[in-house]
Amino acid sequence: MESRLNYFGNPLGAKVLKHINSANKVIADSTLPTVVLELVKLRASQINGCGFCTDMHSTDAAHAGETPQRLNLVAAWREATVFTDAERAALELTEQGTRIADAAGGVTDEAWANAAEHFDEEQLTALISLIAVINAYNRINVINQQPAGDYQPGQFG
């Protein structure tokens, strides 16, 4: 499988990605725990069917020490006992924030209140921003049919 176009090598695509990557760097430098960052990116990518991002974020998380068990259970986190309450709150917010079009009410007050119990204002800001940014990456890669399966840890620095 090949991508529809070389988005990464296209001058306009490179400019767009430069700005999205800058936003992603700000989020990565926030106080949101790294494990939450990786779980959120992986779950949104699974929901959106982004093979490229699912490959990247599961590979990077494993390389950073995340266990295979937890990675395998991200898609079924509600039934899994391996996630903390804070991680579960972030995953719920991620699902609702990613599936806005599927839910007439958007993100529920309950999901927001649960996340607010576990994260301070800066972390909540980072979490909202992360959900938005990973959804942007997912959409670029899904629309472009970016192939998955050969990502190497830290490939993009």
UniProtKB/TrEMBL annotation:
Keyword flag Oxidoreductase: yes
Pfam families: CMD
Family annotation (InterPro entries): AhpD-like (IPR029032), AhpD_core (IPR004675), CMD-like (IPR003779)
GO molecular function: peroxiredoxin activity
Keywords, in A-Z order: Oxidoreductase, Peroxidase
All copies of domain Carboxymuconolactone decarboxylase-like, residue ranges: 23-95
Name of protein: Alkylhydroperoxidase
Taxonomic path: Bacteria, Bacillati, Actinomycetota, Actinomycetes, Kitasatosporales
